[in-house]
Amino acid sequence: MTFDEQHGRDPDAPGHDDGDTGPVAFRAPVRRRHPPEVADEREALEGWLDYFRSQVVLALDGLPPAALRRRVPETGASLTGIVRHLTELERIWLVERWGERGGRASYSFSYVDDSDEAFRVSGLEDPAMLVGDYQEVCEKGRDALAGAESLDDTVRDDRRGHIELRWILLHLITETARRAGQAQALREVLLAAEG
Question: Residue 79: which of 62, 95, 57 has the closest Cα?
């Protein structure tokens, strides 16, 4: 079984159009995932994280690229901005801090959680590329997790001292779930505006 089959991805799904406002809508390269109903703690945590990851990407499905970049005034966020924020979060926590075993994270922008900067996306950024980057960093995160022996394993953190893998996963689950809900709400606003 390929990774795409394992994770419900359709490798032949179109991801974007080449124009900014063309009629072709973004097609999410994932299918709806369901968290495990019977699993040990680690499988459950990783399963719920994957579930919420897929919910974020699916919130973009069917909308034109211009709508995906549109910031909703009430929230200040766009769907692509949410994807960018979560890409950075996954990279920092799983790839850098966990995968490289701690220390100071390097931010690719002036990062403060919930800051306007954390959700800013250029009008030129391709939604399919942003989603591809998100999926790539999630895969790197899965690879980093595969090397962990236990949820009790710890990593050094400059601000907190030492933190467990369990804490990192719970942090990512809560933030990704929060953003998945925000993405669904933005989707509803954008669909209403489109139609």
Answer: 57
- Cα distances (Å, whole numbers) of residue 186 to 8, 33, 181, 182: 24, 20, 9, 6
Between 127-146 and 41-58, two packed helices, what is the crossing angle to 10 degrees?
170
* C-alpha–C-alpha distance, residues 191 and 111, integer Å: 30
Which are the contacts of 2, defined by CB distance < 8 A and separation ≥ 6?
11
Distance CA 142, CA 157 (A): 20
pLDDT tens per residue, range 26-58: 888 877 788 899 999 999 999 999 999 999 999
Closest CA to 98 of 40, 180, 171: 171
Alpha helices in 25-164 (DSSP H): 41-58, 65-69, 79-90, 127-146
Provide the whole-model pTM: 0.78
pLDDT digits (tens, 9 = 90+) for 122-176: 555 788 899 999 999 999 999 999 989 999 999 887 787 889 999 999 999 999 9
Q: Which of helix, strand or coil describes residue 134?
A: helix
Query: Is 164 in a helix, a strand, or coil?
Result: strand
Domains of the chain: 21-194 (1.20.120.450)
